[in-house]
Write a structure and sequence with these properties.
This protein is an alpha+beta fold and 825 residues long. It has five domains: 153 residues, Bulb-type lectin domain (Agglutinin, subunit A, Orthogonal Prism); 119 residues, Agglutinin, subunit A; 132 residues, no CATH class; 87 residues, Phosphorylase Kinase, domain 1; 217 residues, Transferase(Phosphotransferase) domain 1 (Transferase(Phosphotransferase), domain 1). The chain has 16 helices and 50 strands. It has a six-stranded mixed beta sheet, sandwiched between helices. A hairpin with a 3-residue loop joins strand 11 and strand 12. Helix 9 runs antiparallel to helix 11 and helix 11 packs antiparallel against helix 14. The longest helix is centred in the middle third of the chain and has 44 residues. The termini are far apart. It catalyses: L-threonyl-[protein] + ATP = O-phospho-L-threonyl-[protein] + ADP + H(+); L-seryl-[protein] + ATP = O-phospho-L-seryl-[protein] + ADP + H(+).
Length: 825
């Protein structure tokens, strides 16, 4: 420490002797007033760090005359894209002042998933809205101040960016919207997440996230559904406190606060790209030093992290190998010189070839997230259960003394595995890893290889002569027959729908989906499979029915609809395949799947908080507004329901499944068609008269709002009454707050606001469609610029009865067989 003190003194002396030189690179400018704007352009006052990181500052704050915190555009040196960030600066520049020393610590980013380019603009508008716009004018991010009166922006010690009003009160702050870093004195609301970045230079959302709960913090890896790999609970004797030496986490009300026990060196906590939760100190103000890894398992160590050895890798005392070891014929290392990169299957699993499935048995190996699904079962039965289900990737079995009784877990995705010793963990483990047998046959004997050709050669020549004659006689007739068959079969091979869209071959998509081996879900017009394109892009591939005519109309409708429109809240169509009867649609992959598995989830820790539900409702409204207003001709979706609302890693909404969509010109107020949609979401005028307008989507949206806020389905087999009937009773009693989802504490804390959204949903359900608001009006109400018209008579709140004749004739999309779909139906 004495040496460090001398070093510090020398560096401070250099700073003192060179204040004019330093000011060229840093000036104390921590606040601004409205209105003002900044453009992301090169200037000589930028900060260059020794890892080639470059910062174009907007605000800067010094501590004791030394540069400390900054806010501005950051480029990592490997690309020409920028993140808008707050950061902690190493306070000691090098002696020549040509650049700063250690790279800065990024504390928060406004746009981690959408970096901007040169000439992007940040504007603090006259009405107090902070907006980031890319160089082409595309809005990228904004701070939601909800119409509050904002007079300025400032950067405080600790790196908190604030928008304040005339009295100095905080209207918005970056501390309330963390990315991957948690700072001392920063309070996080229950239900808030910390999401790791892809890497230290790529700030977009990675595979891991931390969830703040009332009982502690949970660490998850993103999968479908997310898998928890570690829980840190508050102290058993003090259910509101979790200490870790130099700091602590404390629960108070609906917030958890990070407290620094000893003031001094700068301290912070970061969710790392590899799933670690590390606490750091900047020793002497500039050297980043790891203090503790809070998620490290006391028994398994680093082996408990889901990706420590990559997929199908086995971790033992920090060393990695492929499942089955180096002699395995089923797995190979992805990188021969780096075992931690993981392993690949020599022959990928294929559901159509399930008869070739077998198991690689590995002793004393288990998985990080072992969650028993079957108890009091023997090892062989556990193995057979996995063999029955193609989506099962392994049978993980734990037992005490013999394999005749134990517990069984059937994971659908394999990350890193862990080797165990019974003397340490007090149990035995068996891993039956599902593998695909090779179809290669053994070579024939040399005698057979000689005799068979000699016998077959003359026969083949004779057969060839006969076939030429036959072909000559039948050629013309066959062409006529094939032409007629093609007309009748709906041959898709000649369809070229959009030149700007990528057209895939059936073989391409078969390979991308491992021969359609990982099924995500299914609907009325086909099944959806997970896939990966050659460039590593994950996709969801919808394979429509292969029977003659099945799904052809829906295929054309969906491609022509979603293929010609582009909006942030609509799922993106990557491409399509149309080869004869093979019709497939390729969509962007949505890692958080569909909305139904979140709002109807019985796991209390996986329910959505208030802010996320409100964000989802607003996103659905924005997507519908684009379809109803901005598209020409206008588009009516016809099947708005939770299964058709997909969610990306940030829970941004992507409306999907346009197989039932219909285009209408703007001068058509009402049109008649056959009834189609899903029972429970169909508007009464559509069921009764088969007439429709954009208001039928508004009705479905109203049902959806009720389901999102209440956390239950409008109708399922376990319910006697429709949710809409329960809403009627509670609305008439003035007790709508009783319906707010009680499985989520954060929802209970926002009951008053939730009831306002319930009233918006109710207004969308009025039987007289003329009284229903348009989706544009709904958005105005959500944004607070318009009020919902009061309703005194709730008699319209009941499910319209289905008339028998119509029931027999309508075309209703079949219910999904799975609600964990990460992609469009």
């Amino acid at each position: 420490m004495a040496i460090a003190g001398v070093k510090r003194a020398i560096q401070l002396l250099v700073l003192f002797l060179s204040p004019l030189i330093l000011s060229a690179y840093f000036s104390n400018h921590p606040s601004v007033n409205v209105p003002t704007s900044w453009q992301n352009v090169y200037n000589s006052d930028g900060w260059q760090f020794n890892d080639n990181t470059h910062v174009r500052p907007i605000l800067a704050l010094d501590l004791n005359g030394q540069p400390s915190f900054g806010f501005g555009f950051l480029r990592n040196g490997t690309t020409n894209t920028f993140y808008l960030v707050t950061l902690k600066i190493a306070i000691i520049p090098n002696s020549s002042f040509s650049n700063y020393g250690p790279p800065p610590v990024v504390l928060w980013s406004a746009n981690p998933n959408r970096p901007v380019e040169d000439n992007a603009t940040l504007e603090l508008t006259v009405n107090g809205t902070l907006v980031l716009t890319d160089a082409d004018g595309t809005p990228v991010w904004s701070a939601n101040t909800s119409g509050a009166f904002v007079t300025g922006m400032n950067l405080s010690l600790g790196g908190n960016l604030k928008l304040v009003n005339g009295s100095g009160s905080v209207v918005w702050q970056s501390y309330s919207f963390p990315t991957n870093t948690w700072l001392p004195e920063q309070r996080l609301r229950i239900g808030r997440n910390l999401t790791a970045s892809v890497s230290m230079s790529n700030l977009s959302s990675g595979m891991f996230y931390l969830s703040i709960t009332r009982h502690g913090i949970n660490a998850y890896i993103k999968s479908v559904p997310p898998q928890r790999y570690k829980t840190l609970r508050f102290n058993a004797n003090n259910a509101t406190y979790l200490g870790f030496g130099i700091g602590s986490l404390t629960l108070s009300g609906n917030y958890v606060t990070y407290n620094q026990i000893e003031k001094g060196d700068f301290q912070f906590m970061r969710m790392e790209p590899d799933g670690h939760l590390n606490v750091y100190q900047l020793i002497d103000g500039y050297e980043e030093t790891l203090y503790s890894d809070l998620l490290k398992d006391e028994h398994y160590g680093d082996c408990a992290y889901p990706t420590v050895c990559g997929n199908y890798g086995v971790c033992f005392e920090g060393q990695c190998s492929c499942a089955g070891g180096g002699s395995s014929i089923y797995f190979r290392q992805l990188n021969a010189t780096a075992a931690s990169f993981g392993c690949r299957e020599v022959t990928p699993l294929s559901c159509p070839d399930a008869q070739l499935h077998t198991f690689l048995e590995v002793m004393n190996v288990t998985c990080f997230n072992f969650a028993p699904q079957l108890s009091n079962i023997d090892a062989e039965s556990c193995r057979r259960e996995c063999l029955k289900n193609c989506s099962c990737k392994a049978a993980m079995f734990r037992y005490q003394d013999n394999t005749s009784i134990g517990t069984c877990y059937l994971p659908t995705q394999i990350f890193s595995l862990m080797a165990i010793r019974k003397e340490v963990f007090n149990y035995n483990a068996l891993a039956f890893i599902k593998v695909q047998r090779s179809t290669h046959k053994k070579s024939k004997s040399s005698l057979v290889s000689v005799l068979v050709p000699s016998i077959l050669a003359p026969l083949l020549c004779f057969a060839f002569f006969i076939s030429v004659c036959y072909h000559y006689v039948m050629q013309k007739g066959r062409k006529n027959i094939e032409g007629k068959q093609r007309e009748n079969s709906g041959d898709e091979s000649s369809i070229h729908l959009f030149n700007e869209m990528k057209k895939f071959s059936f073989e391409d998509l078969s390979n991308a989906t491992q021969e359609f081996g990982v099924k995500l879900g299914g609907g009325g017009f086909g099944d959806v499979f997970e896939g990966m394109l050659g460039d590593g892009t994950r996709v969801a591939v919808k394979r429509l029915g292969s029977h003659v005519g099945q799904g052809r109309k829906e295929f054309l409708a969906e491609v022509k609809t979603i293929g010609s429109i582009h909006h942030f809240n609509l799922v993106r169509l990557v491409g399509y395949c149309a080869e004869r009867s093979n019709r497939l649609l390729v969509y962007e992959f949505m890692c958080n799947g569909s909305l139904d598995k979140w709002i109807f989830n019985q796991d209390q820790e996986q329910t959505l908080n208030w802010a996320t539900r409100k964000k989802i409702i607003h996103g659905i409204a924005e997507g519908l507004k684009y379809l109803h207003v901005h598209c020409n001709p206008n588009i009516i979706h016809f099947d708005i329901k939770p299964q058709n609302i997909l969610l990306d890693e940030k829970f941004n909404v992507k409306i999907s499944d346009f197989g039932l969509a219909k285009l209408i010109s703007r001068d058509q107020s009402h049109v008649t068609t056959v009834a189609k949609g899903t029972p429970g979401y169909m508007a009464p005028e559509f069921i009764r008269d088969r007439k429709f307008s954009a208001k039928i989507d508004v009705y479905s949206f109203g049902i959806l709002i009720l389901e999102i806020i209440c956390g239950r389905k409008n109708r399922d087999s376990s319910q006697v009454d429709y949710l809409i009937d329960m809403v009627k009773v509670k609305a008439e009693e003035g007790q709508l707050s009783d319906l707010v989802d009680d499985r989520n504490e954060d929802m209970q804390c926002h009951k008053e606001e939730a009831v306002k959204l319930l009233r918006i949903g109710i207004s969308c359900l009025q039987t007289d469609h003329h009284k229903r608001p348009s989706v544009s009006q709904v958005i105005h109400v959500l944004e607070g610029s318009m009020d919902v018209e009061p309703i005194t008579d709730y008699s319209f709140l009941s499910m319209f009865p289905m008339d028998s004749p119509l029931e027999a004739n309508r075309a209703i999309s079949a219910p999904l067989i799975a609600s964990v779909l990460s992609g469009p139906r």
